[in-house]
Amino acid sequence: MGRRVKRSTRNAAVHAPAVGASMAAYQAAGHDNAMFDWHPGGGSADADLLPDLDLLTARSRDLTRNNGLMAGGIQTLRDNIVGAVLRLSSTPDYRLLGWTREKAREWGNTTEAHFRSWAETTECDAGRSLNLLGLTLQALSGSMVNGDGLGLPLWLPRPGSSWATRIMMVESDRLATPPIKAAMPNIRGGIEFDQYGAPTFYNVRRTHPGDALGAWAAGADEWERIPAFTAWGRRRVLHLHDKERTGQSRGKPIVAAVMREFHMAGKYSSNELEASVANSLVAAFLESNLDAESASELFGEDPRSAWGESVKQARNLRRMQGAAIIPLPVGAKVSSFTPGRPNAAFEAFMLAVLRHIAAGLNLPYELLLKDFSKTNYSSARAALLEAWRYFHGRRRWLMDYWLRPIYELWLEEAINTGLVEAPDFYAKRYAYSRCRFIFGGRGWVDPVKEANAAQIRMAAGISTLEQECAEQGWDYEEVMDQLALEKRMRASRGIPEPGVVQIAAPAEPAEEEATAGATE
């Protein structure tokens, strides 16, 4: 024991800092003038987030309602992550199923057709108002603005309907811990967990806590305890949120890191606008440079009344006109009102703040502001490529934690009703439900250059028609079927086949000048 203490003492002496040196091995953990008052807490994921989540969510919604830049940023994210297209591409794992590739493709095409009859109609919505695209956009918006997107899969057979599986969207405010369970150690943010951190039950309020119009309704302070899964493994809750730290039960608004900058930049911009409006008004002051003795000599015993009469005479001219002579009271001069607006540094300051906000939202500045006026093709392409790395990651996240679970719920019903054949479904659930989704296309910055690049990629064997079509939101099989149909229609009408178009990038201006010079 004595030896152990001695060795510990020797190591402490070796690693002790010299006199005057910092006590921390890392400068970031030092206590110099820049760091001495920076001591953030070291709480767990839930301890750091849950006490502030309600206020973060309320402020995030207020920004989305009243800040045009925030509203536009959320819409930009919706348009680029999901867009106007949402199509299932069923890709069952034919190797695990023991099928051929052709059988898997045929099974997938049949399943996709049945799925469209559910997903592209309001059959999928418990509220009968949205299709799957609308529900997905609502879930994505909820996860970005509130921190969580919440959906409850319900079994609701309806007369005249082919399907009973429906999704009911629930705002994240309703997911909360009942007061009676507040002291339980296994419940966080309304979610009950087992010893391994897996959710077991979700506690959902029957009404929204902020619904003043429905506060009188029965069940306003009642919760429903919903199991995460049924006894046979069917999901009962769809919870879409980012889990950035282990042990994190709920998500946070996407704008949390730059919310302060958003709010202050909005106030600063509004104040500058008001000041500029005030500056656009023509205003002036009349000033008298007469002392008391001079005024008494000029106006007599009552200088105040005499000055007032003089001012009334000067008011005869009501409107500023060209070559006008303005009469002034005796002993007065005109001083203009100049508040010093617009602020010359306003644009540069706002540009720096907006670039910081754009980085916090994982968007290029040009895309957030929709301003490409100072961007050339190469810069725009680089900015959009960086943005699309983020969008592709969000698409994968949306597929894994929202769309695939929904597809699996629908597929279970389709198999149990006999519309889709899938022997041993519950034993081979993953193989049958393997799929991907096609979202809205990314578009082109320069169609000629990018179509040429796509042709080169396919010719070199590093891309396929399926991949290129998916980038633009199209299904390659539908494209090929349409091409075959048009070919047959041209043949039946005696119209020749179109020739192969040789796509070439336009010559740069320098190249055109060199070619012209060589010709001359």
From TrEMBL:
<protein>
    <submittedName>
        <fullName>Portal protein</fullName>
    </submittedName>
</protein>
<dbReference type="GO" id="GO:0019068">
    <property type="term" value="P:virion assembly"/>
</dbReference>
<feature type="region of interest" description="Disordered">
    <location>
        <begin position="500"/>
        <end position="520"/>
    </location>
</feature>
<dbReference type="GO" id="GO:0005198">
    <property type="term" value="F:structural molecule activity"/>
</dbReference>
<dbReference type="InterPro" id="IPR006429">
    <property type="entry name" value="Phage_lambda_portal"/>
</dbReference>
<dbReference type="Pfam" id="PF05136">
    <property type="entry name" value="Phage_portal_2"/>
</dbReference>
